What does this fold into?
Amino acid sequence: MKPLYIFRHIEYEGPGYLAQVLTHYDIPYRLIAIDQGELVPAHSRDAGGLVFMGGSMSVNDPLPWIEDELRLIREAQTRNLPLLGHCLGGQLIAKALGGRIASNGAQEIGWHAVASVGTSPWLGNLPVHFEVFHWHGETYTLPNGATPLLRSAWCENQAFTMGRTLALQCHVEMTAPMVREWAEKNPQAISLPSASVQSDTQMCADLDARITALQAVADQLYGHWLAPLLKR
It folds into this structure.
């Protein structure tokens, strides 16, 4: 089986729980640390799929690796390769496939509910409303041909699918240590709590129970995304 390429853009925004899922299913992966200066591969022929993690930068920033990742996403999409994006990663996929990235209007940080948009096999038996973790100030419009999957009170497009592609605005990859580390490393972003922005105390409350519930959501989404790979 060819390895999944996982693109990390900030050292502490790695694959998190996704890595545990891949290990459970014995799916190989290669971490490409953009934050450490690793280059974006010239093509996706040696990859079983592409995964893009989050980051504090904007997809619209003039960073050379962003254009390289957008090119790789488009090339992989033409090959029907599985694509998965988390937050910045979801925005990268959206932009590469024709969507637009702009301010969300309100920052969305912490634990907030999302709602399903219609019915979809991607969601399995998940409830109509469930809580996930968020940390973003920008969002995407849907590319042509995309199917919306989730929305929230603060962000209309929380997830979309497109063939074997899953693009998430939210973070389902979180572990408890990741939540604590993000809050510790980004105090300014949460210094003025509001209805859409939680303080570190709020986002770390009942953390173990919240992570357990989030990982059940991740199991469903990741499981559906990985299903074609597991049949090989």
In short: Strands lie at 4-8, 29-33, 49-52, 83-86, 101-116, 129-140, 147-152, 159-162, 165-168. The chain has one domain: 4-230. The longest strand covers residues 101-116.
